[in-house]
Specification:
The protein has a single domain, classed as Alternative oxidase (Ferritin). It has 10 helices and no strands. It starts with 8 loop residues before the first helix and ends with a helix. The structure holds fe (ii) ion (2 copies). The site of one fe (ii) ion (FE2) has 7 residues, from helix 7 and helix 10. The site of one fe (ii) ion has 7 residues, from helix 4, helix 5 and helix 10.
């Protein structure tokens, strides 16, 4: 099981690179038992995935990834805000501060990582993008999803983390499917985007870019599950 505290962005990047081997990915995939996740997060995740299918199709595409990524960063963003607010009131409780600190540190690194995904993938999806599916649906859903994530985490941090495990698991397998279906085409194209350089990643081609994003999602999934076990069990 993944360690529950990141040592920083370099540690995150080291873990991402380690998942480039199939053996390490298989081991990481087996770390999380999805069958223990409760019915409420499961139902909400199901509704989200059905909506993605209705608006963006069953098969993964850059436009579908853009919609997924717009929502993917929101739980982390909302958790960071919540940690800040809760610590404003309960800063004298040291153990609570440590638990929230673990969640906050994970949320901060993951949020920065998901922001990179959405910026770069929006750049890649710009030719497919239209006003409704490329702009309006992601923007409106992001607004409502932010407030939903705040309320959901206040009601139950366990449910919030479980929903995130399912969301990240879905993202991981969507990227994996996309990589299998478009390997040749992705290897034939470079990935040039200023934001990627700013973030500190330099994949040799689009295939490697999507491989690393897929690995990111597996780490997000496993870290959410590790936090669930370590802090909120
Ligand atoms: Fe992502
Ligand atoms: Fe993710």
């Amino acid at each position: 099981m993944a360690s529950v505290v990141y040592e920083g962005k370099e540690d995150f990047e080291r873990r991402v690179r380690a998942l480039q081997t199939k053996k390490n990915r298989k081991m990481a995939e087996a770390e999380v038992d999805l069958s223990s996740i409760g019915i409420i997060p499961r139902m909400i995740a199901h509704v989200l995935f059905v909506l993605f299918r209705i608006f963006y199709g069953k098969q993964p595409s850059p436009l579908k990834f853009k919609a997924i990524e717009v929502l993917a960063r929101i739980p982390y963003q909302s958790w960071e805000s919540l940690v800040f607010v809760v610590l404003t009131v309960f800063f004298s409780n040291e153990q609570l501060a440590i638990r929230l600190g673990k969640l906050g540190r994970f949320a901060s690194i993951a949020q920065e990582n998901e922001t990179m995904h959405v910026v770069v993938i929006s750049h890649l999806a710009r030719k497919q993008s239209d006003l409704i599916r490329g702009v309006a649906i992601p923007a409106v859903s992001a607004f409502f999803y932010y407030w939903f994530c705040i309320v959901f985490a206040l009601v139950s941090k366990k449910w919030a983390l479980e929903l995130n495990v399912l969301f990240e698991n879905h993202a991981y397998y969507q990227y994996d499917t996309y990589l299998s279906a478009h390997a040749q085409n992705l290897k034939a194209n470079t990935c040039s985007c200023d934001y990627l350089t700013f973030y500190g990643r330099n994949p040799k081609d689009l295939h490697e870019f999507f491989e690393l994003v897929r690995n990111d999602e597996l780490i997000h999934r496993n870290m959410s599950a590790a936090l669930l076990t370590d802090i909120y069990a």
